[in-house]
Amino acid sequence: MGNGEKTSLASAIDGNRLWRRHMELARIGATARGGVNRQALSPEDGKARAMLLGWAAARGFVGSVDPIGNLFIRRPGRDAAAAPVVTGSHLDTQPTGGKFDGIYGVLAGLEALEAMSDLGLRTRLPIDLVVWTNEEGSRFPPTTMGSAVFAGALPLDRTLATRDAAGVSVDDALAATLAAAPVEGRRPLGFPIAAYIEAHIEQGPILEATGKMIGAVTVIQGLRWFSIEILGQAAHAGTTPRRRRRDAFSAAVAMVAALERLTADETDTVRFTVGRVEVAPNSPNTVPSRAFFTVDLRHPDAATLARLGDQIEAVCRANARGCEFTVAETIRSEPAAFSPAIVSAVTATARRLGLSHMEIVSGATHDAKFMTGRCPSGMIFIPCREGVSHSEEEDARPEHMTAGARVLAEVLAELSNSAE
Ligand SMILES: [Zn+2]
Fold first, then answer.
1. E strands along 121-193, which residues?
2. Which of 415, 420, 375, 405 shows the shortest CA–CA distance to 113?
3. 199 alpha carbon to ligand 1 midpoint, in Å?
4. Helix axis angle, 43-58 relative to 103-119, nearest 10°?
5. Separation in Å, CA 92 to CA 21, 45, 140, 238, 321
6. pLDDT in tens, 177-223
7. Which of 123, 272, 288, 381 could crosslink 249 through cysteines, CB 3.0-4.6 Å?
8. How far is the CA of 65 from the centre of ligand 1 (A)?
9. How far, in Å, from the CA of 94 to the mean position of ligand 1?
10. Residues 6+ apart with CB under 8 A from 417
11. Distance, CA of 198 to CA of 87 (rounded, Å)
């Protein structure tokens, strides 16, 4: 592809169409406070899929689904039998979610395909626009369900049997969703993919704070979750000298303070959060007999994440203050690094288009994580206002959305002509 052709694809991106479609989709599940409640496999999810399929059908793009309901909408390539390049994200939201998280990646992908069609551009490989089922995990755990099942990281049978708080199974909710947004084609789980690239709002403040339009995502940081339970002895707060106590909460406070020191770093890269604390019997005049807290630890570097997480038990032991304690690791997810070739394709494209850009780490997890082991993968971030997401206040600027879609379209065209 020559440079002139590339410029014209980027300029064929229609920012008004892209914005309009966000506003139309945001009506499905709209909340009174300007957000969206469109939880996975709900009637609203079905309506959103049907709306997308309508836009796709108008361009001759045909949809198909896999056994967990991931939706693939194809723009054919010259080589019909070849593995596709895949782009997309998710249409489900948090209960008090916004108009952009996930939706942007789907609609920017559709816009890229439409721009190609507007230009009559033919690619060698087919391009599939994917809508991953249940990325948010707020109705049915876990998060990134569809992409995890696709990649074989979650078993299909057990996932289909998962129930929401009302007792509805994924299986039944999926059948209703597919009835509301019917497609004829069926695809197997884990079919070969030539390359994967997902656009997303950053969900953090870094691009906005540094005045950059495009983030070339290098890695999704890893995560380790721990539950720490401390058992002391209940005693009278007035009669028991402090030296004789085994105060479970006092131990918890000392442990947390020491863990804060362990994980403090000059570059402010380590994420360390104690988000849940319990104390029992939770009485003002009784020395606590039991305390419990969780640790959410994240870092983009696997060795650092391993080193810090592995020290938690020893730090707790040094601060137990005579109490017994247990440390249980409940989740461990290694960092997922993106393909250097795709990171540099995003960077080079942004530079060529005159868009400010930087390399960036993803603090949140994404469906793209499950593609990293399967094919060259990458992500493009655009800024969102004050880094806010999972919120009805979530907001993004039209010019940033257009810029991200331009980069996405160019990189898709490159990958679908060169990727083997
Ligand atoms: Zn998302």
1. 127-131, 185-186
2. 405
3. 10
4. 10
5. 15, 6, 11, 53, 46
6. 999 999 999 999 999 999 999 999 999 999 999 999 999 999 999 99
7. 288
8. 20
9. 9
10. 1, 123, 124, 125
11. 5
